Structures are given as C-alpha cells and as structure tokens.
TrEMBL record:
<dbReference type="GO" id="GO:0051287">
    <property type="term" value="F:NAD binding"/>
</dbReference>
<dbReference type="GO" id="GO:0005737">
    <property type="term" value="C:cytoplasm"/>
</dbReference>
<feature type="active site">
    <location>
        <position position="115"/>
    </location>
</feature>
<dbReference type="Pfam" id="PF22698">
    <property type="entry name" value="Semialdhyde_dhC_1"/>
</dbReference>
<dbReference type="InterPro" id="IPR036291">
    <property type="entry name" value="NAD(P)-bd_dom_sf"/>
</dbReference>
<comment type="pathway">
    <text>Amino-acid biosynthesis; L-arginine biosynthesis; N(2)-acetyl-L-ornithine from L-glutamate: step 3/4.</text>
</comment>
<keyword id="KW-0560">Oxidoreductase</keyword>
<dbReference type="GO" id="GO:0005524">
    <property type="term" value="F:ATP binding"/>
</dbReference>
<dbReference type="InterPro" id="IPR017441">
    <property type="entry name" value="Protein_kinase_ATP_BS"/>
</dbReference>
<keyword id="KW-0547">Nucleotide-binding</keyword>
<comment type="similarity">
    <text>Belongs to the NAGSA dehydrogenase family. Type 2 subfamily.</text>
</comment>
<keyword id="KW-0028">Amino-acid biosynthesis</keyword>
<dbReference type="InterPro" id="IPR058924">
    <property type="entry name" value="AGPR_dimerisation_dom"/>
</dbReference>
<dbReference type="InterPro" id="IPR023013">
    <property type="entry name" value="AGPR_AS"/>
</dbReference>
<keyword id="KW-0055">Arginine biosynthesis</keyword>
<dbReference type="InterPro" id="IPR010136">
    <property type="entry name" value="AGPR_type-2"/>
</dbReference>
<dbReference type="GO" id="GO:0006526">
    <property type="term" value="P:L-arginine biosynthetic process"/>
</dbReference>
Length: 312
C-alpha cells in the first residue's frame, strides 16, 4: 500500500501537479478530500494527523492553520509549499542541493523553496559560500515568470485579460521571497528583487547581473561557471550550461512540465560584467517537483523518482 500522503489544497495549481507526479506510484497512496470536505477543518484535521506525509498546497494563512491542526505528537511529516515557514525555526529548507540530502531525508517539517528563490539561490548560494562572490555585495535579481506562478487567481486574470502582455510587480520592494533569498545565500544585504510575469503558462528566467570587476573578490566568469559545475556535479536535477555558445534564452508559452534547473553564466571579458541566469519551471523545481523530490528523500527513495526529467 505504501506511505499515505495527504495533499491539503489538492485542487489548486501546485496540488494538481503533485498529484500528477505521484499518481500510479506504488510507494505512496494519495489521500484527497472531495469537494464537499476539502475545506472542512474536521476532515482536514483527521487527514493531517492520520497520514504519513502531509503536503500543504495552500495560501500562507491556510498553511499556518493546517500546521496548527496537527497534533505535535502525531507521526505526520509535513512538506509546506507555501511561504509561511521558509525562514522559520524548526523547519528545514527543502533544497537538498544546498542544505544536504540527509537533512531533507531526516526532516519532520520541510518548507519548500519559493520559485524565484530556487533560481536565485541555485546560482548564488554556492558561489557566496565558497567565497567567489562577496557576502556583502548588494545583489539584485530580475525575473520573469509564467502566470501559473500566481496560482488560480493569476491564471484566471491572464485568461480573462487577453491584452495583458507583460506585468512587472513587487513595486513596493517588499516581495515575500526576499527573506529566504537573503538567508539561504548568506547575504549581508537584502536582495533588490524585480519580478515580472508574461502570458506564458509556466516557466521562468531568474537573472542576477553582476559587475565582477567591481567586487573585492574580482572573480573570473569561468571560475564561477566551474564552481557551479563542481557544486552540481552529482545532481540529476541541476545542470550548468556553457554561456558562451548561447545568443538568447527563451521561454515557451505552454511547455511540458519539467523538474530540472539550467544554470547559465554569460560574461564579457572587456567589461568584466556577467549575467547569471537560471531557467526552470515554476511548477516543477519551483514548486511541485521540489516537493516530490523532498518526499522521495524522506521516504528513502531515489530523489528523482516520478520527476519530469529528460532521460540521461
Ligand atoms: N504556483 C506556483 O508556481 C507556486 C506556488 N507556491 C505556493 O504553493 C501554495 C499553493 O499555491 P497554488 O497551488 O499556486 O495556489 P492555488 O490558488 O492554485 O491553489 C490553492 C488551493 O488551496 C485551496 N484553499 C484555500 N484555502 C483553503 C483552506 N482554508 N482549506 C483548504 N483548501 C484551501 C484553494 O481552494 P479553491 O480551489 O477553492 O480556491 C486552492 O484549491 C501557495 O502558498 C503558493 O504561494 C510555491 C511555489 C510556486
Ligand atoms: C508570478 C507570481 O505571482 N509568482 C508568485 C510566487 C510564486 C511562488 O514561488 O510561490 P510562494 O508564494 O510559495 O512563494 C509571487 O510573486 O508571489
């Protein structure tokens, strides 16, 4: 029968994609509440406390509420896809490539990284940790996302406003992803984050422009690329590409689900400037793929089981 997995919020965008990845797998059986019960606190409390794993695919407030419904003595292990617990004590950040596979495998409470932080941290965290980039640098991050990143409300808006071609937001410079970006990259300053959305269903490009020549560490772009390659050498999920061969990076409007991350380092030797870019699926490694990767590790399985990755 396998482990029982309750998806709280299974009718939402992230929940449906997790269901897709777990459907038909013998290691797990899914507990899903029907439409009449899916918001009923008693039904949810029962499911939350009786399952081996609970995956929360809810808005932040509902995720906090779900955790409060779990008896602390219950054996249930939690993966929260929301941003409610990303920098909270007692939670493990569900980014095995950065925090370690064992930490994720042994955790009782996992907070799934945000989609934009997944791209930013995949690029920056290893390079700050190994001293190639200074921790006190004032990092900026520009990003563009598919509209499924905003869940059902944004999907509805993009489906209705057919004229919407581009939307930049977070203009109050208060985006909720800033704390996790700063904490897990080990930065002295908050990241200046400029997110935007385009009329593509899924997919994102997350970019960090860098004046390498102005840094105290004065790193060469090749050493950044080499260091990322080394860091992700054993990862089946994160790959590092040659920047030089590429003239452009594109997103398609309705691509297939994908659980990988591609990293690029573009540079100009004359100016000493570089653009570090991550391409990923906000619903893949940015949300549902990451949750399933952590679930696999917690269940003692190969981390890529059921993930949407190209065959090697
Ligand atoms: N979409 C993405 O790319 C990413 C999403 N996330 C995070 O994952 C979480 C889920 O996001 P997403 O799936 O996109 O959002 P959606 O809006 O698509 O889905 C949320 C689901 O939660 C349900 N819900 C809301 N309140 C309750 C409640 N009190 N009890 C039970 N169910 C409830 C909603 O019900 P109803 O259907 O009735 O509205 C909906 O089905 C969010 O915290 C989001 O920030 C994280 C990374 C990326
Ligand atoms: C396009 C879009 O709206 N994206 C969402 C982030 C999606 C994500 O990572 O979700 P969390 O809420 O779990 O952090 C936003 O900017 O709020």
């Amino acid at each position: 029968m396998g482990y029982s997995v309750f998806i709280d919020g299974a009718a939402g965008t992230t929940g449906l994609e997790i269901r897709d990845r777990l459907q038909g797998r013998s290691e797990f059986h899914l507990v899903v509440l029907d439409d009449a019960q899916r918001k009923d606190p008693d039904a949810r409390r029962d499911a939350l406390n009786s399952s081996d794993f609970a995956i929360l695919c809810l808005p932040d407030e509902a995720a906090i509420d779900a955790v409060s419904l779990i008896d602390p003595a219950s054996h249930t292990r939690v993966i929260d896809a929301s941003s409610a617990h990303r920098v909270a004590d007692g939670w493990t950040y569900g980014f095995p490539e950065l925090v370690g596979r064992d930490q994720v495998a042994n955790a009782k409470r996992i907070s799934n990284p945000g989609c934009y932080p997944t791209g930013f941290l995949a690029l920056i965290s290893p390079l700050v940790r190994n001293g190639l980039l200074p921790a006190d640098w004032p990092f900026t991050c520009n990003a563009v996302s598919g509209f499924s990143g905003g869940g059902k409300p944004l999907i509805e808006r993009f489906n209705e406003e057919l004229d919407l071609a581009y939307r930049t937001y977070g203009l109050a410079l208060d985006h909720k992803h800033r704390p996790e970006m700063q904490k897990y990259a080990g930065l002295k300053h908050e990241v200046l984050f400029a997110p935007s959305v385009v009329p593509a269903f899924r997919g994102m490009l997350v970019e960090v422009p860098l004046h390498l020549g102005a840094m105290s560490t004065n790193p060469h772009a090749d050493s950044l690329r080499d260091a990322l390659r080394l860091h992700y050498a054993s990862s089946p999920v994160v790959t590092v590409n040659e920047g030089a061969a590429q003239a452009e990076l594109t997103l398609n409007s309705d691509p297939d689900p994908w659980d990988g991350v591609e990293l690029f380092v573009f540079a100009n030797a004359d100016s000493g400037n570089a653009r570090l870019v991550a391409r990923l699926d906000n619903l893949g490694k940015g949300a549902s793929g990451a949750a399933v990767q952590s679930l696999n590790l917690m269940a003692g399985l190969d981390e890529t089981t059921g993930l949407r990755l190209p065959k090697k």
